[in-house]
Structures are given as structure tokens and as C-alpha cells.
Design goal:
The structure is a homotetramer. By secondary structure, chain A is α/β, with parallel strands linked by helices. The first copy, chain A, is built from 13 helices and 9 strands. Chains A, B, C, D: It is an enzyme of class 1 (oxidoreductase).
Amino acid sequence: MAKIGFVGLGNMGGPMAANLVKNGHEVHVFDLSEAAVQHAVEAGAVFADNAAHAAEGADFLITMLPAGVHVESVLVSGDGLLDKIGKDCLVIDSSTIDAASARSLNKAAADRGIEFVDAPVSGGTAGAAAGTLAFMVGGSDAAFAKAKPILDCMGQNIFHAGGAGAGQVAKACNNMLLAIHMAGTAEALNLGVNNGLDPAVLSEIMLKSSGRNWSLEVYNPVPGVQEGVPASRDYDGGFMTDLMCKDLGLAMDASQGSQSPVPMGSAARGLFNLHQSQGNGKLDFSSLYQLYRKKS
Amino acid sequence: MAKIGFVGLGNMGGPMAANLVKNGHEVHVFDLSEAAVQHAVEAGAVFADNAAHAAEGADFLITMLPAGVHVESVLVSGDGLLDKIGKDCLVIDSSTIDAASARSLNKAAADRGIEFVDAPVSGGTAGAAAGTLAFMVGGSDAAFAKAKPILDCMGQNIFHAGGAGAGQVAKACNNMLLAIHMAGTAEALNLGVNNGLDPAVLSEIMLKSSGRNWSLEVYNPVPGVQEGVPASRDYDGGFMTDLMCKDLGLAMDASQGSQSPVPMGSAARGLFNLHQSQGNGKLDFSSLYQLYRKKS
Amino acid sequence: MAKIGFVGLGNMGGPMAANLVKNGHEVHVFDLSEAAVQHAVEAGAVFADNAAHAAEGADFLITMLPAGVHVESVLVSGDGLLDKIGKDCLVIDSSTIDAASARSLNKAAADRGIEFVDAPVSGGTAGAAAGTLAFMVGGSDAAFAKAKPILDCMGQNIFHAGGAGAGQVAKACNNMLLAIHMAGTAEALNLGVNNGLDPAVLSEIMLKSSGRNWSLEVYNPVPGVQEGVPASRDYDGGFMTDLMCKDLGLAMDASQGSQSPVPMGSAARGLFNLHQSQGNGKLDFSSLYQLYRKKS
Amino acid sequence: MAKIGFVGLGNMGGPMAANLVKNGHEVHVFDLSEAAVQHAVEAGAVFADNAAHAAEGADFLITMLPAGVHVESVLVSGDGLLDKIGKDCLVIDSSTIDAASARSLNKAAADRGIEFVDAPVSGGTAGAAAGTLAFMVGGSDAAFAKAKPILDCMGQNIFHAGGAGAGQVAKACNNMLLAIHMAGTAEALNLGVNNGLDPAVLSEIMLKSSGRNWSLEVYNPVPGVQEGVPASRDYDGGFMTDLMCKDLGLAMDASQGSQSPVPMGSAARGLFNLHQSQGNGKLDFSSLYQLYRKKS
């Protein structure tokens, strides 16, 4: 069993740390929120009063933080953890941050002889709790092999996307594509409805035709068409519009850094940003369907 | 067995008529191209020297023509067939035309006591030959029920989309959504490739994640990732960019007529039109991936 | 002085006919609305009880109708006026319709030895009343030369855009470009405001810089920045969002017919359509700024 | 006369420093390129062998660098200049960087009791040489008042856009709007040309109509329509596509940071990025017109 330092115990990090505990690991946890730490301790984790103490003597250091600046602040700036942990401690950053920062963190670690993987997740809070997250991992083959048994405790699909930063790139690509087909699905269904079609019938037709996509299959944005999806509970829960807007910003960063045109992702981002501006940031992202609907 | 008039024997209409013959129907065929008529006759159809003769005494009249103006010209204008066929002859228009024209043809037929369904297809020339087309049908329940056994001879999935014009609307929605996720898929894969990812690995990851869609599953636009797709034979065959541009124009018409916003479909249309303008109209539509690639 | 038949006396046609009367012409008027005819007669026009009577013996026939179908119905279908007027009667269609219909009307006229110009206007109801409209004219040099003195009675800038249909194309291009820079201006100002800038200061800076455009100069979309514009009277009056959506549809038609990519016009159309769907069709088109604003 | 430290002597910084010399100031210059320093010294500037020496005892410190990371590196990181200059030295950063970095530099300066303005320019290398640049300045009233006489030596229009970062925001807004109307102008003209119109005639019409904008007025993108513009010399010189892509990336950053929707700017960015990917990064940005043209 491994000794694991875990920094960042939010909606995702909390249950992830708990799953590591369940799998028998010794997990030393820290978060700026005392309540979050307390919650993790109740789940069997070991209390640490700061990040450095959580990381002390760890075999693995896992960070799960809101943005690149936080990860850099914890690992690199001032007395960052990269200067405190041992060379045999593998750092796993599961935060969703921009690829350039991930690459630069990987380099900062390598400069100190430390292995690092970027390993953002998808699957939401439900996946975090159930231990069924998907991890998209960037890093060397050796680092991936070493990280995989730990990630297996928290997730179901562990993908090795490529070298440093590739995990973040893969997630940015995937979520951009998700935004595109969700917006497209909402738009196509609205076009059908405005022309008198039943959205359930049209959904069924497109599901069996070339319009098929994940949004249509398991996340239909029209209320009443599918059971158990956010659209059928007033767009509560799920994946917030605010988070989709964040991820689309990261996709723009990846595109800017690599001079890659992303006109469709940009169009989707424009729509989600309009929807967010209209006060819907906390609703599930499939509520974009409402942006299209006719108001009297 | 039914007596069927069939007008329009192009790349799609020819094999469709042949499949009706194979199923034992008496099919009287006409096309402006003598070669096309000859070809159908060789397949067992009955020669007609004009459209009126093909339709004479028919139980079903099927039209498979390039655009709304042609269908109106054959059925309505001057001495159109709607004034010549019997009231018990069901008209099936399998052309892909705008929904407004389909509705107006349906009304013109109804005014004469004739039943009409709009029944555009998807599945391409391969599906036409194999008899595995999908039909999206708009019209009354009675007309659909009557048309279905005939359509079954030519296709595999026969969808009743709704009332008059609904078949055309469903096809426009589906193909617009197809254009959107194909463009999105090309764009996401290019973003990954430009960031050093292997397109096959990224495709695999997104297929198992929320980016999944038909383009990624069965029609990967990156050469070498999937076997048997147009991308792996220089984008030859498949569904031409020109045809996608035509269908996206029909989606714009449907949106204009119903005051429906289609920003994603419009963005996709912009890209396919750029690609077409650059001389790629005859290539399969998945060649859009090439629009994104870096040139030195 | 000329004898002029004038069909279509709406918000634009009414004052245009009145200006012809003021310039000493004998104007025979018809409209389906009796009130509109009555109003024109009070302004000095001659009553006609149908379109054919208005056109009888005219030197010029002017049509000002909502859409292509109406113009075709009046001029061509059934007993259309083109078969009733003399060969020396010049037909001026000032309706805003699609270029393809304008070309086909021109051809229908030419087939009968009649000269035809498409001459859509810009300048709104205020320009129609003041006689300061701009006319964008498509047709032969001879037809343009003959039409010009008549158009001079109703407008200030009379442009010869080119041959048949060119007037409609020029208007579609201009209004598409207007939609693009209005949307862009609204978006840039909102971006500035959201970053703490004063919209008046930012407007002033961009007016003196390369961002300058007509929307910024004379039609600022932010309430309170400019006096006398729709934005400063709750977006009342001016050019309705509904009309901009109509014109953008015509631009899409022109693009489809000529296989021209219009990604920016399409993006603008998507936004105006969203704004229209949210119930703002009757507001001035500069109210698009409100689509961008943050709501709590 | 003031003592001025000047760091960054590229295509823009070189001539700007020279203009300060011409106005009688004592300008101490540094750049990583020795040739650039040499060139400035020949123009009358004082040689400095590093940035710290250039800034020593200066009344003003001006930086003109490629990106935010360079400015932060010179001013803040490690032994940055903010810790070396006197409290009465005003820092003027004329680099075009993201607004967030500008705000954070302003704060870093304020924390040390130093005044800072962000003052990006527009006007290109020609404007830099002629001393006719426009400066968009963000900072306090006092700092602006102090900076203005210095900026007057290098430019013609000195705008006070607002507080910290406002100069960068104003430039991002302006250049985004420029990109939008240039793309729109190219697109509208191409639509006209594809429909048989003469681009010079159509340009003239739109210039006198509501389509009017800076691109149409002084920077027509169609070869042969206007003299002296990049379009009439194979898109050589002017403002490179690469730089427009950089500025549009900064606009995306400003939009992300303030949760502002920028669908039109995003659409323009998509097009310029496609054009850049096709190998046209070094051409003037008005060459976007070529992206639209039909190829056989």
C-alpha cells in the first residue's frame, strides 16, 4: 500500500481521496477548507495542517485544484512542494488546466529529477464518488505505468494520451467536441420542433442515422425526451455551464498555443458564453437548448 | 404486386428502381437521360418515353430528382402529373428538397384528392444498390402505411417523421447535425495532432468518452486511422462536399422559414463552403479535415 | 411628366408614391389594403381598383412588395402584368427579394421585350418620406438611364450596381456587412464594458482607430452613448430585427446560389435569429447589444 | 528633458526610441539583439549592456516586448527592474499583452509605490517611424498626465482608456472589431464578385451606405480596387496575419477573464487561423480575401 499526499478536496477531490482510502492507501490530505479536510478525515484519511505536511514522505502526490495558477502555486512558487518531496515521489496533477502549464510543470519536475503526469478526469462528481472516472494521462510510459494502479482506485478508463501535457490536450479536445455536438444537437432538435416535429421522434430518427452522438444518446437536452438526464429535472446537477465555459477557454488556449483553427469550438463557446451571461452558469450545460427556444 | 411509375434514374434513382423490380413490382421508368432509362430497362423495368407514360395507371408514382424546381416541374407546372394520375395513386417524392416545397406539393396533391409523402433518403449510392437506405417520411398515417411496403423494397429503416414536409425537415436536421459533428471531429483531431497527439489514440479516447459521435465511430476523417473509410482512400467516394453544401443550404431554408437560430449549422456551412470554394466539392465531405491542416 | 403605375403602398411604398406625385407625375396606385390606397389618393395619386388598372398605359410600373413570391404573382403568374403592359413600359421592382428571382423576373420581362430593373432601397421609412432613399439598381445601362429620373424623385443616391439582379445582390452584401459590423460593435463594446471601460470612451477610441464603422459612427448600440439613435429610445423605431433577419436570409440565398462562403454573415445571422427568438423581432436591430449583456 | 530607459528595440521599439531621441530626451537602450542596440545608438541613444543599466536613474522606463511573459520577466521575476528603479520612475509598457497581465504588473508596481501605465500602440511600423502611433493608455489620471508628454513624442493620438489594463482592453476590442469588419468586408465583396458585380463598384456603393467601415475606406482587401494598400502589392507589408492571430488570442483571453461572449470575434479568429494554417501568416491580414476566392 502506498503513502499518498492529496491536496485539493473539493467536490471532485474529496470523493477521489476517499476512494484511495477505501483501496487501502494511506492518504494524507490538505485543503484550504477545514471542513473539506474534516470530511476526508472522517472517511479515513490522515489530517495534514498544510500541503507540505501532506506531501512529506509520500510515494505519490496528487493535486486536484481549480486552475493552473493554483497548481503552480502549490508545486513551484516560493517554497513549492517540488522542492520538498523526494525524487521517488510521482506527482499526479488531476486538475483541469491548460496544456502549456502542464508541460511547464512536467519540465519543472523533470528538472528536479521527479516524475510528473497530467491526469485530468471526466465523469463528474457522480463518477468521482463511484470510482468510475475516466483519466486522460500525459507523461512518459514509465510514469504512466507507475501511476496507473493508483488511478485505477479512482477510475474506470485510464487512457495514456501521450507525453507531457497530452492528458490536458485530450481532455480539451474531447470537451470541445462535446460542446460542439451538444450545441448542434440542441439546435437540430429546436429546428425540428419549430417545424412541427416531435423531439422524441426526431431524436429517435437521428440516433439511428448519421446524426448520432453522445449528447443524443445519453444526454438529450430537450425536457421529457429522456429519463434521468438533467433536461428532465430542470437542468439541475450534471455538468455546469460555467465549467463548460472554463473548458472551452482551455481549448482556446490550446488552439492559440499551437496555431490551430477551432471555428466550431469557437462557435460553441460563443453560445455557451451567451447562455452563461444570461444567468444560466449554474445550470447543466444541456440547458443550452433553452437559449434556442422561442419566447413570446 | 404494384404498378409503379418511377421518374428520375440518377445514381440513386437507378438502383432504387432496380430494387423495386427485384421485389416483383412492375416499374415504368423515365429519365431525361436515355442511357439511364436503358440501364433500368436492362434491369427489368418497363420503358416509358415520357413521365406521363411512366405514371399512366400507376398505383404509386415515385420521383427522385435533384431539386424542388424539378419536382414541381414534373408534378405541378403546365401539364404536371398530379393532373394526370388517378386519385388512388400515392405519390412518393424521394428527392431531397426544401420543406416548404414539400409542404406545398403535399397541398397541391391534397387539393386534387391525391395522397403524397415526402420521403428523402440517406445511405448514399451504396445503400441504394444494397436496398439498405433509410427513408424519412412526412405525410399522414394512412399515406405512410400505404407507402411503407414499397419503401421496404428499397430501404432498411423507414421512419415516419410526422406530417407533410416532416421527412424533409428530419433529413435537414440530421444532415446539419452530421455536418456539425464531422467538422467538430476534424477540428478536435487536428487540435490534438498539432499538439503532438496520435490521432488514432485521441480518436480511441474520445470514442470512449463524451466526445463520441457517428463521424468518430464509422467515418474518421484522418487518413490512416480507420480502414475502409473515404479518408483512407484519398477521400474518394462517400458523400461529396457539394452534396453536403446543398443539404446545408436546405437546412438554412428550413431555419429561415421557421425563424430558428442555427449558429452551429451556419458555422459548419461556412467551413464546407470554404472547402468547396477551394476546389474540393467532389471529394468526400470528411476531407474537410484537410482544410484544417497546416501547409508550409 | 410620366404616367406611373405603383403597386404596393406599405410603409415604404406609400411615401414613395407620394413623392412621385409631388414631382408632378401621374401616379395610378393599387394595394390590397383599401386604406393604403385611400391614403395615397389623398396625397394626389389616382385610384385603381386592381393592379392591372394601375398599370394600364403606364410609362413606368413600380412594384414595392414584401417578397419574391408577391412580385412574381403580380408580374408573371396567371394573368400577370408583364402580359398586359406595353413594351415601352419600364418595370422597376423596388421590393427587396432574392437575386435569383430578380434575375428570373428580368428574363421574363426581356422575353416579352420589356425592360426591367431591380432597384431595392435602403434608408427606411424616414428616407422614404423625405425622398432621400438610396437605390441599388440592377439592369442594362439603357434601362438604368431611363429609370434614373424617376428614382431621383424618391431618393438621393442612385447606384447602378450592374446587370440583372445586381441591385439585389448589392443590397444583400451591404446589409450583411452592416449586420456583421453591428454585431461586432455590440460585442466589442460589451467586452470593454465587462472589463470596466466606459462605452463612450471606448467608442471614441475605436472611432478614431481601425475599428471605425458605420454602426459606431451613427448608430451606437449602447444606450446613452449617442443621442437620437434607437439605443437611446429603448430601441424603438429604426430598422427592425425581423427585417434584418429577412435580409440575412436573402444573403444566405445569394451565397447558396453562387457557392460563396459567408461564415461571418452566417455568424451574425445566428445571433440576430437568437435575439429574434427571444422575442425582440420588433425592436431596432441595434438592440442586439442586449443579447450580450450579463443578466443576474 | 527626461532620462528614459528603453527595453525592447524591435521593428516597433527601434523607431519609437529614435523618436524620443529626436525630441531631445536622453534614451538609454537595451535589447537582446546587439544589432538592434547598435542601430539605436547610431540614432543617438545611449548604450546599455543590460536592462538594469538602461533603467538606472531613469525618469521613465519604457518596455516594448513581444508578450506578457517577457514583460513580467524584465520587470518582476528574479531581479526584475521594479525592484531596482526609483519610486519616481514611471513605467510605460507599450507591449501588446493580455489585460490580466497588465493589471497584475500595475499592481506589482503599485505595491512598490511605482506608477505604471499599459500603453499598447496601433499604427504599425510606418506609424512608429513617423511618430504617428496611436496609444491606448490604461492607468490613473496622474500617471496618464505624466506619461502623455513622452507618448506625444512617439504618437499622434494618445487615448486615456481607463484604469489599469484598460489600454490593453481597448486595443483588444479595437483589433477584434477590425478583424470582424475586415473579414466581413472580404466576404461581402467576394459574394458580390461571385454574383457578377465589379468589386470597385460594390465597394463604392457600400462606402456610401450602411456597410461603411475602415477596411472598406482605407484598406480594401481586393487587389486593384484601391491604390497603395497591401492588396495592391500582393499583400506585402502592412499588418501580418500572424499578428492579427496573436491579437485575437488576446481578445479571447479578455473575453474569458470577464465571461464575455465574443461569437463574432471568435468567428473571425477561426478564419484568420485557417488562413494562417494555410501558410499565409506573413502576408498582410487583408489577404484573408484570398481564403474566400474560388479555386479551380
